Amino acid sequence: MNRYVKINSDRLAAQSHFRTLRLGTPFQPRIDALGLKQDWYSWAGYRAPHSLWDEELEYFAIRSQAALFDISPMTKYRVEGPDAEAYLDRVTLRDVTKLKPGRVHYTAWCDDEGFVLDDGTLFRLSSTRFRLCSQERHLPWLLDSAIGYEVSVLEETEAVAGLALQGPTSFAILRDAGFAGVARLKVFDLAEFAHDGGTVTISRTGFTGDLGYELFVPIDKALSLWDRLMAAGELRGIRAIGYTALNRARLEAGLIVANADFTAAEHAIRADRLRMPDDIGLGFMIDPDKGHFNGRRAILEARAKKKLRHVLVGLEIEGNIPAEHAIVYHKKSQEVGLVSAAMWSPMAKRNIAIASLRRPYGDTIVDDLWVEIYAMRELQYQKLMKKAKVVQRPFIKLERRTASPPADF
Fold this sequence. Notes:
With about 400 residues, the protein is of the alpha+beta class. Helices cover about 20% and strands about 30% of the residues. It has nine helices and 19 strands. The chain has helices spanning about 5-15, 30-35, 55-65, 85-90, 140-145, 170-175, 220-230, 245-250, 295-305; strands at about 40-45, 45-50, 65-70, 75-80, 105-110, 115-125, 130-135, 150-155, 160-165, 190-195, 200-205, 210-220, 240, 310-315, 325-330, 335-345, 350-360, 370-375, 380-390. The strands form four sheets. The protein has a six-stranded mixed beta sheet with strand order 10-11-12-9-3-13. Helix 3 packs across helix 8. The longest helix is centred in the first third of the chain and has 13 residues, at about 5-15. The radius of gyration is 23 Å and the shape is globular.
């Protein structure tokens, strides 16, 4: 190859970088076949759907039937070894010694200054084996933190496929699919079940505030699991959904998302964007009597010296126009915070939002709060000042989420 041809070939390769496709998950053949809208986004480098067919009906599939959502791009780490419990107790907020085999808990982890790096779920598969699931990738930090412990940390995101099955008929679908004994799973329980010559791990967890489960399986068993659920759920109204519908359900449940409702410490450029657990409603995870964990000294000092600067609150807003990314004011004049997620809730029949406010607003001062909404009216934006009040999360609480055994819808 002469020099001119090589230079031209290199130039064409550089210019066509945008043609590089996002990664497909193990379920991609089934999802592509259902993706009528071709509305995709990048989730950790994977091609994931905002919506597959109709975002409104996908949301109602969660609340009235059963919804199937591909969670394979979620970052997953296998942590195992004699010191796995002690190691995870050191790097995460919650007391891992209280997490029994066959159980899951929601947790978070911080840097040395007590600022939240991420939140996620910790699955205890046995006395010495765990699975840690998170939004962001943390392998270098996790490996550095493992020095001195007899433990191995391995990212298994590409090796393990995941599905979330959520909604009132989700239990009946799993039972009809032949997963005998799934009725025994209580909220945050997990167990292994036979599937296609191997096993699938099923946990009674989810991100919707509804009755639901998450299923994890080796990638070579992924499509057979999808087909098994779809066949069993045909008469139970099972539907595949995208992230937009899931995001609406999680907001009604009052759940937060990293880098949406708070900025993870590794991503924050400005110092005032950093958040401690108490700033984002995760203070309940911290046990002052627990031994040392990352950020413990800084977190307890901030509490003792009343240095906490922010509070994450639920808001109910007058009217029916969602206040997405609206500025929050006190007495219509002083800017005190920002809405990170908002919607008109079909279940709560309220205009709801999650907002981060500067203390003492939202903490001790909860009256005379307003949000600034810009609504499109006849091709022109109109500024609306709507009254807001601080309310408890979750915005809806469904008894079927915790019913044991679940009802047969």
